[in-house]
Design a protein that fits this description.
Helix content: 40-55%
Shape: elongated
Largest sheet: 6 strands, parallel
Strand order of the largest sheet: 3-2-4-5-1-6
CATH superfamily of the largest domain: P-loop containing nucleotide triphosphate hydrolases
Distance between the termini: 36 Å
Structural class: alpha/beta
CATH architecture of the largest domain: 3-Layer(aba) Sandwich
Number of strands: 8
C-alpha cells in the first residue's frame, strides 16, 4: 500500500539534511510512477537534471512504502566511480530514512550497485561451468590483447595473404573486427558471405569511373583477407581462457539467453532494476539484460541520447527509442513507459540555449528523440 508520497519523504529528510533540494514535478512523477510503481520505464534525463538524485529517491520511495527491501534492488552503471557515488548516496539516504522514522531496517543489507561489466563477471563466475568454461582469471587488459593479436599477425604464414598495410594497422583491424564479431553475435562465415555478396553486387559497376566503388571493393577484399587471422586470434584466446571484458560480456549474454533459469534466479533476487547511462549500453549488454529482466520486470533505465559516447563498441543513441523492444510491458501493464527530466540544475539560460540549438541539429540529422532543457526556476 502506498502511503508516503515522494514529497512527504523529501520533506521528512529535509528536516535532517537541509542540503536536500525539493523535487520538481517531473522528478516526483518518475520517483513514484504513481499508478503502476513496478513496470518497465525509460527516463530521458538531460545533463545536470538530477538523475542520480532521482534514482536515489526512487529507491527511498520503494523502500519507505514497503514495496521492496533494499537488497532486492539492482543498480548498474558504467564506471566504478559512478557506481561508488550512487551507492554512497543511496546508503546515506537510507540511513536518513531510518532517522526520519520512515523505515525500520531489518538487516544491514543495501542495494547491489555495481558496473555492467562487474555484474556480467558475477554471472560468469556463477554459471560459466554450464558452457564448460573456466572464467576465474582476470580479464585481459588492452596491452595483453594487443600482444596476442601481434603474435598472431607477425607469425602468420600464408602465401596467399597479401597486404600493403603496416603490421600495426593489421593488428588493430584484427582486434576491432574480433570485437564486432563478439558484440553482434556473428560468425566468420557470415561476414565472409556478406562480403562476397557485396563484391558480387559491385561487379557490374565501372570502378574506373567511381573511386568510391573502388575503395569499397578494396576494403571488402582486405577484410576478407584478415578473417583467418581473426579466427585464429579468437580461437587462441578461447583455448587458453584468455578473455577480455568484451568476451566476458558476450559470454554472459549467451548464458542469459541459453539458460532461462538464470534469469528466474536473478529476477527473484532483484525485484527492481535501475540502469544508468542506458544510452551507452552495447548490443551484448542489451542481450544479457533483456534475457534476464525483460517481459514486464520493473526496469527503470535512465539516459540521454545526446550524451552517447560508446558508439565505437556497439552502443547507439537509438537505444533509448528501442527500450520497449528489449523490455516490453505485459498486457496487464498499462502505465506510462517514457518520462523526461528536462529541468537542469547545472547551467544558466545562455548555455542552455546553445545546448538546445545543438540538440535540435542532432535531432534533425539523426532522427532520434533529443531532450530540450529548461533552467530551474530561480
Amino acid at each position: 500500500m502506498i502511503n508516503k508520497s515522494p514529497e512527504q519523504i523529501i520533506e521528512a529528510l529535509q528536516k535532517i539534511d537541509d542540503g536536500i533540494n525539493p523535487l520538481t514535478t517531473d522528478q516526483s512523477k518518475i520517483i513514484s510512477i504513481v499508478t503502476n510503481p513496478l513496470e518497465p520505464a525509460v527516463i530521458i534525463a538531460g545533463a545536470g537534471s538530477g538523475k542520480t538524485e532521482t534514482m536515489s529517491n526512487r529507491v527511498l520511495y520503494l523502500v519507505a512504502n514497503g514495496i521492496v527491501e533494499p537488497e532486492e534492488i539492482l543498480g548498474l552503471t558504467f564506471t566504478r566511480k559512478a557506481a561508488g557515488e550512487l551507492s554512497l548516496r543511496v546508503r546515506r539516504r537510507l540511513s536518513q530514512l531510518e532517522d526520519a522514522g520512515l523505515y525500520t531496517r531489518e538487516s544491514i543489507s543495501n542495494p547491489t550497485i555495481t558496473t555492467y561489466h562487474s555484474y556480467a563477471g558475477k554471472l560468469l563466475s556463477e554459471h560459466s561451468i554450464r558452457l564448460g568454461m573456466d572464467t576465474d582469471a582476470d580479464p585481459l587488459g588492452e596491452a595483453e590483447i594487443w600482444q596476442i593479436a601481434s603474435d598472431v599477425v607477425r607469425n602468420w604464414h600464408d602465401d596467399e595473404f597479401r597486404s600493403t598495410s603496416k603490421a600495426s594497422t593489421i593488428i588493430k583491424d584484427v582486434i576491432g573486427l574480433a570485437k564486432q564479431i563478439l558484440e553482434h553475435k556473428v560468425t566468420i562465415e557470415q561476414i565472409r558471405a556478406a562480403d562476397d555478396a557485396m563484391l558480387e553486387a559491385l561487379l557490374p559497376f565501372d570502378f574506373a569511373a567511381s573511386s568510391v566503388g573502388s575503395k569499397v571493393r578494396t576494403i571488402l577484399h582486405q577484410r576478407n583477407s584478415i578473417l583467418p587471422m581473426v579466427q585464429a586470434f579468437l580461437d587462441r584466446r578461447k583455448a587458453a581462457g584468455e578473455l577480455s571484458f568484451d568476451d566476458q560480456m558476450a559470454i554472459a549474454a549467451d548464458i542469459a539467453t541459453k539458460f532461462p533459469d538464470v534469469g528466474e534466479l536473478e529476477r527473484k533476487n532483484y525485484k527492481v532494476v535501475l540502469l544508468d547511462e542506458y544510452q551507452d549500453t552495447s548490443q551484448s549488454q542489451l542481450r544479457m539484460l533483456s534475457a534476464l529482466f525483460g517481459n514486464g520486470h520493473p526496469v527503470m533505465a535512465v539516459g540521454d541520447p545526446s550524451q552517447a559516447i560508446y558508439t565505437w563498441r556497439g552502443a547507439s543513441a537509438g537505444t533509448m527509442d528501442s527500450f520497449a523492444e528489449y523490455f516490453p510491458k505485459m498486457p496487464d501493464q498499462k502505465g506510462e513507459s517514457k518520462f523526461v527530466l528536462p529541468t537542469t540544475f547545472r547551467n544558466d539560460e545562455v548555455i542552455l540555449k546553445a545546448a538546445n540549438l545543438i540538440s535540435e541539429k542532432i535531432k534533425e540529422d539523426g532522427g532520434q528523440e533529443v531532450l530540450m532543457l529548461d533552467a530551474r526556476d530561480g
